[in-house]
Amino acid sequence: MAPADQAPRKRRAMSDNPENDVPEEPSDCTIPPVVPPEDAGRYSVTRDPHAEQDIADYVEGQCRGEESVTHVERVKTEHVLGEAYEIWDVSTDKDRWWVITNHTNLYSQRTFPSLDYTSRSTSG
Question: Best exposed site among 38, 45, 50, 77 by fewest CB in 10 Å?
């Protein structure tokens, strides 16, 4: 807290001119770095390595060897009229994909940024 005779120091955004920069005050909050896709699987609670490999093989086959899978993660399983549909988030060295099983389909996350879009395109 600033003394009564001084106004509190305000933070401001870093500028293009380093001479004008005011350093941010220390914080107790630490934001961890992004976990690389190839390491993310180590932090998953439930994994099925065989199913992950099947999905990775499917994606690499659909990409005709032009992309290599770096991470596969089952996001959820939904049941529709008694049928189970698994939804997978797949990262490659070039892109990210949604994969939905039970008549497996592949969707680019650039075209379908939300999983909600993919479920509409698979119904009917």
Answer: 45
Spatial CA neighbour of 71 closest among 39, 94, 98, 113: 39
Question: Average per-residue pLDDT in the chain?
Answer: 80
Structure tokens at 11: 């933070």
Q: For 33-85, what is each residue's pLDDT tens digit? A: 887 777 776 766 678 899 999 999 999 999 998 999 999 999 999 999 999 99
Residue 80, token pair as written in the block? 């529709």
CB 102 within 8 A of CB 81: no
2: left (phi over 0), alpha (psi -120 to 50) or beta: beta
What span, in angstroms and rounded, lies between the C-alpha atoms of 71 and 50?
14
